[in-house]
């Protein structure tokens, strides 16, 4: 463990670091601004309104980059905290936000919508609906004689995930190879390029609600390893707690996938990195995952849009960077934090 202390200074750093990263990322791009310029633009907008800002600068910062910055913060924090909640919940170090098939369900919904419409708002809504259908399917399949165990939920999630992956392949097979197939393929690779404030207004509150719920229950995640009787003696209903956490993480995953496609590795890499830094106490893991997840996605999205003339799909970037970093962590520690 690299940071043995988790005091007030660490908490303040975890709050300020994503804000500072967001401000720096807001200025990076072909039309670049330094940190002082960005602060001045935001201050001018807050005090005098948009008419006091040069139109091109306003368009670049407030219409193009700011929605992406907000989405990157929401998705990074949401996916990281979902992974951090799922791993103790399922007692599985490899559990991720994709475990229950929600992301695959949302991807199928998006691919289906792209067959019939090019409206991004329509695509987002259909993706969100199918993400929620996936979690309902997973929960229904996992119930045996009215009871649902975590083991059955994982198995049902694998089955639902496989089903929707096959359906996505079917959609790609029947799609027009000249027009629809490239659009579907690019969307599934993940991108924040098409985000608007209207899209954020639909998916953002669901992500924020899910993050807030998991944050408020963070200390209860530590007692998931107890038996039902031990937990009940402390006045905690484990079954209800598991359902609330699963629904919160599912809402986050479905909303993120509906807004920017499927993004992998965030929910696996960030929680494990956090546990290496701060230990396994979920009272620390959850807030630190929110902060570091937001920073990670801000850096990834900024790299995706600014590193080359053509935007790099996010899922490729997160895998290319996430997999080697995870391998290095494993080689360095031998998985001792798991």
TrEMBL record:
Membrane topology: Multi-pass membrane protein
Transmembrane segments: 12-33, 69-86, 98-116, 122-141, 153-175, 195-217, 241-265, 312-330
Family membership: Belongs to the binding-protein-dependent transport system permease family. FecCD subfamily.
Record keywords, A-Z: Cell membrane, Membrane, Transmembrane, Transmembrane helix, Transport
SUPFAM superfamilies (UniProt xref): ABC transporter involved in vitamin B12 uptake, BtuC
Pfam families, per database record: FecCD
Entry's localization field: Cell membrane
PANTHER family associated with the record: FERRIC ENTEROBACTIN TRANSPORT SYSTEM PERMEASE PROTEIN (PTHR30472), MOLYBDATE IMPORT SYSTEM PERMEASE PROTEIN MOLB (PTHR30472:SF70)
MF term (GO), any: transmembrane transporter activity
Main localization category: membrane
InterPro entries named among the record's database cross-references: ABC_BtuC-like, ABC_transptr_permease_BtuC
Keyword Nucleus carried by entry: no
GO terms for cellular component: plasma membrane
Entry keyword annotation includes Glycosyltransferase: no
Top-level taxonomic group: Bacteria
Record's protein name: Iron ABC transporter permease
CDD domains named among the record's database cross-references: TM_ABC_iron-siderophores_like
A GO biological-process term: siderophore-iron import into cell
């Amino acid at each position: 463990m690299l940071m043995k202390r988790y005091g007030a200074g660490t908490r303040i750093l975890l709050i300020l670091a994503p804000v500072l990263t967001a401000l720096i990322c807001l200025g990076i791009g072909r039309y670049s601004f330094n940190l002082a310029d960005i602060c001045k633009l935001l201050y001018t907008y807050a005090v005098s309104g948009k008419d006091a800002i040069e139109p091109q600068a306003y368009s670049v910062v407030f219409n193009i980059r700011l929605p992406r910055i907000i989405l990157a913060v929401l998705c990074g924090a949401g996916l990281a905290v979902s992974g951090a909640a799922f791993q103790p919940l399922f007692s599985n170090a490899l559990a991720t936000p994709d475990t229950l098939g929600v992301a695959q369900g949302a991807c199928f919904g998006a691919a289906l919508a792209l067959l019939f419409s090019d409206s991004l708002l329509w695509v987002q809504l259909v993706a969100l609906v199918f993400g929620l259908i996936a979690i309902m399917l997973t929960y229904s399949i996992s119930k045996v004689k009215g009871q649902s165990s975590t083991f059955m939920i994982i198995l049902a999630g694998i089955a639902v995930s496989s089903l929707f992956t096959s359906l996505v392949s079917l959609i790609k097979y029947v799609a027009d190879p000249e027009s629809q197939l490239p659009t579907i393929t690019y969307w599934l690779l993940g991108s924040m390029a098409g985000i608007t404030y209207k899209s954020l207004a639909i998916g953002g509150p669901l992500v924020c609600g899910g993050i807030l719920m998991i944050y408020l229950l963070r200390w209860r995640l530590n007692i998931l390893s107890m038996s039902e009787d031990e937990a009940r003696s402390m006045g905690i209903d484990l079954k209800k707690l598991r359902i609330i956490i699963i629904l919160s993480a599912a809402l986050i995953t479905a909303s993120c996938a509906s807004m920017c496609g499927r993004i992998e590795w965030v929910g696996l890499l960030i929680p494990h990195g956090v546990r290496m830094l701060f230990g396994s106490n979920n009272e620390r893991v959850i807030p630190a995952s929110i902060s570091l997840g937001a920073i990670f996605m801000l850096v990834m999205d900024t790299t995706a849009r600014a590193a080359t003339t053509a935007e790099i799909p996010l899922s490729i970037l997160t895998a290319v960077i996430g997999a080697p970093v995870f391998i290095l962590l494993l080689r360095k520690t031998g998985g001792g934090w798991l």
